[in-house]
Amino acid sequence: MSGTFVGMPAFPKAAHEAVANTTLRANLKHATHTIRDKRAKAVAELDDWALLREAGKQIKDHTLRHLDTYLVQLEESVTAAGGTVHWAADADEANRIVTRLVQETGESEVVKVKSMATQEIGLNEALEEAGIAAYETDLAELIVQLGHDRPSHILVPAIHRNRGEIRDIFQKKMGSWGRPAPEGLTDTPAELAEAARLHLREKFLRAKVGISGANFMVAETGTLVVVESEGNGRMCLTLPQTLISVVGIEKIVPTWRDLEVFLQTLPRSSTAERMNPYTSTWTGTTDTDGPQTFHLVLLDNGRTDTLADDIGRQALRCIRCSACLNVCPVYERAGGHAYGSVYPGPIGAILSPQLRGTASDIDASLPYASSLCGACYEVCPVAIDIPEVLVHLRERVAQGGPATRQGNKVVLKPAKGHAAERAAMRAARWAFTHPAALTTGQRLASRTRRLHPRTLPGPGRAWSATRDLPAVPAEPFRDWWQRTHGGKETDK
Amino acid sequence: MSSRDLILGRVRRALGTPATPDTYDHAVDRGYLREHGHRTAAQTVDLLAENLADYRAIVHRCTGGELAGTLALLLDQRGTRSVVTPPGLPESWLSETDAVRVPDEVTNTPAGLDGVDSVVTACAVAIAETGTIVLDGSPDQGRRRITLIPDHHICVVRVPDQVVSSVPQALERLDPTRPLTWISGPSATSDIELDRVEGVHGPRTLEVVLVGGA
C-alpha cells in the first residue's frame, strides 16, 4: 500500500491523542449516530435481508475460490467490448501504468471519481510528481484535498470535519485551485454543496481524462459499475475522452444477475438509502456516447497474499459500504486517522495488516484496535466475521507463523512486544495442567487478598492503567463447589 | 514474467489445488425475494410515485392525451427557454411548448450543454420499491451527457408498462451492453455530517411524469 501513512504511530498512541480532541469526538458521534439509526430502518424495510446477506457472501466466496478463472473471463469480455486491460502487481506498477496512460493523452490534468483503490496506491501523489494535477471531485474528497488532510472514513473521507470547518477550508483554499468560494459563504450544507458545484463545474466541462475505481466488475459481460450520490461520478465517467479505471482484483462478480443482490444491500448499508441517487454501468466503450478510450487497471497490491490465508481471505468480500465503521464504538471515539490507513475502522483493522503485512508498528497494532463486541459482523452486508479475523491476526502478531508476502510463503517471527503476555500464558498453561499447584495458588491468593495492589507493578502497569484488577474472592470457586455441592446445600 | 502471469500465478498458488469446478448455479442460494410484498399494477405505480417523491423528485401524472400540455406547462413554469431533446423523442411530446429545441448531437460540447435550461427524455424502466428510473441510451433517451449537464430533467415514464417492482426485475429487463444510468431523485450528497442534502453536480431538479391511459 502507499507510503502516505508511513511513520504512523501504533494505534494506541494515535487513538490516545484523537480521543482528547473534543471537536473530533463530537463530529464523529453526531455523524455515526445519525447514520446508524437510518441504516437500521432502511434494512428493516427488506424482509429477506438475511437471505440477501447470505447470497452476497456466497457470490463473493465463490468468485474468490475461482478468481483466476473470472479474472481471465473479465479480461476477455472487457477487451471484446473495446477496453484495454492492464495488470498491476503492486502500487508502484499501477501508478506507473496510469501515469503513462495520462501522458500518452498529452493532458496535464485529470478529474477523479472517489476511489479507495487509487487512495490506497497514492495515485494523486504519483501523478503530481509527474506534473499531472489530479482533481478530486467527490465533495468529501475535495474537502480532504483542499485541506491537505487525510481521509478518515471509507464513504465520507471528511467525516471528521463539521460544517463550520468545511466552510473555512472552502473560503481559504478554493481560490488557489480554481474558482474561489462565493462571497459570504455560510455553513449551511446546501450552500456548501453549491460552492462545490460551482468550483468543480469548470473542471468537469474541460476534462479530457477521467480516473475512477469501480464498485463491481461483471466477468461475463465486462461491465463496470460505479455507485455514487452527487453526479461527480457521472461527470467523470461520461464527459472525458479517456477513462482509466483502477480496480482491485476482488471486485469481480461472475454474472449480471449478481448485481441484484449488491444493488439492494450496498446503498442501504452505506448511506441508508433505498437506492443511491446515481449508479452508472458501462461495458467497454459506446460509439458517440462517453469516453472513446477505456483502460482497466487490475490491481493486486497484497490482495493475493490475503487470498492465501484461509481465515483472512473473507476480508476480500468487502464491498466498502462502511457500515462497520459507523457502528463501531472504537471508531466512534478514536476516529479514522488513528488507523493509519485509507481503510479505517473494523474492516481496516483486518484489511490493512493483510494488504501491507504486520511488519510496521501501526499494522501490528491494528488487530488490537477492537473490543471484539461483534457489532461490525452484525451489520456487514457480506457477513465478514471481522472479530474472527481480528483474533486470527492477533495470533499471527503474537505468535508469528506462516504467511504470504508478495506471493512468497514466509514464516513470521513473534512480535517482541508480546513477550510478557506469552510468558503469562505459558505460566497459566502450567498451572491449569497441575491441579495441586492451582489449588494452592488460589487459596494463597484468597488469603492474601487484602494485600493485593490495585495496579500491577513493572511491565504490567500499562495494562492496569486503564483497567481495574479483578477482585479475588474470599474463597476459591472450587473450594466453594466442594463445600456446598454446587450450591445445593446452603452456605453456612 | 508479465504482471498478468505473476498475478494469476499468485492467485492459483493462494487457492492451492483447484477446487472441483462447482457450477455457479449451485454455489449461491437465490432464496431471496423477487419482489417485496404483493401489489396490483396500479399499486406498484403508486409505490413508484411515493418513493420518487420521498427522495425529492417532483412527480406528475397524466394521460397520453394530456402529455404535450403537461410538458409545456412544466417547461413554462420553470422558465425554460431551451430544451435538449434526444433524437427518438416522440414529436408530439413537445408539440405545445415554445422552448427552443437543442437536438442531442455528437457535436454538442459540454460547455454548450451547460447553457441549456432543461432536458426531456423517456426512460428504459422504473423501479417502484426504490423510486428509481433507469436510462439506457435508447433513441428516446439520448447520450448520457444530456441528462447530466442541464440543471432540470423531465423524465417521462409510461405506466404501468415500464414499471417493475424491484431491482431483480429491473436487471432482467436491462441490456448490460448499453451504458446505463440509474437515477433515484435529484443529485445529492451525504458528505456533510452524513446527512442527505440535495443538489450537487447532476440536475438539481428532477421531474417525473407518469403517463398512462389515452
UniProtKB/TrEMBL annotation, chain A:
The UniProt keyword set, sorted, is: 4Fe-4S, Electron transport, Iron, Iron-sulfur, Metal-binding, Repeat, Transport
Start and end residues of each LUD domain: 73-298
Task: Fetch the PROSITE patterns from UniProt.
Answer: 4FE4S_FER_1 (PS00198)
Pfam families referenced in this protein's UniProt entry, alphabetically: Fer4_8, LUD_dom, LutB_C
Gene Ontology molecular function, alphabetical = 4 iron, 4 sulfur cluster binding; metal ion binding
Q: Which residue positions does the secretion signal occupy?
A: none
* Family annotation (InterPro entries): 4Fe4S_Fe-S-bd, 4Fe4S_Fe_S_CS, FTHF_cligase-like_sf, Helical_ferredxn, LUD_dom, LutB/LldF, LutB_C, NagB/RpiA_transferase-like
One Gene Ontology biological process: lactate metabolic process
Q: Which residues form the 4Fe-4S ferredoxin-type domain?
A: 315-384
Which residues belong to any copy of the Lactate utilization protein B C-terminal domain?
393-483
Q: Which PANTHER family match?
A: LACTATE UTILIZATION PROTEIN B (PTHR47153:SF2)
Name of the featured protein: Iron-sulfur cluster-binding protein
* Taxonomic classification: Bacteria, Bacillati, Actinomycetota, Actinomycetes, Kitasatosporales
From TrEMBL, chain B:
The name on file for this protein is Lactate utilization protein C
InterPro entries on file: FTHF_cligase-like_sf, LUD_dom, NagB/RpiA_transferase-like
Q: Where is the LUD domain?
A: 113-211
Q: Which Pfam families match?
A: LUD_dom (PF02589)
Gene3D superfamilies under this entry? NagB/RpiA/CoA transferase-like (3.40.50.10420)
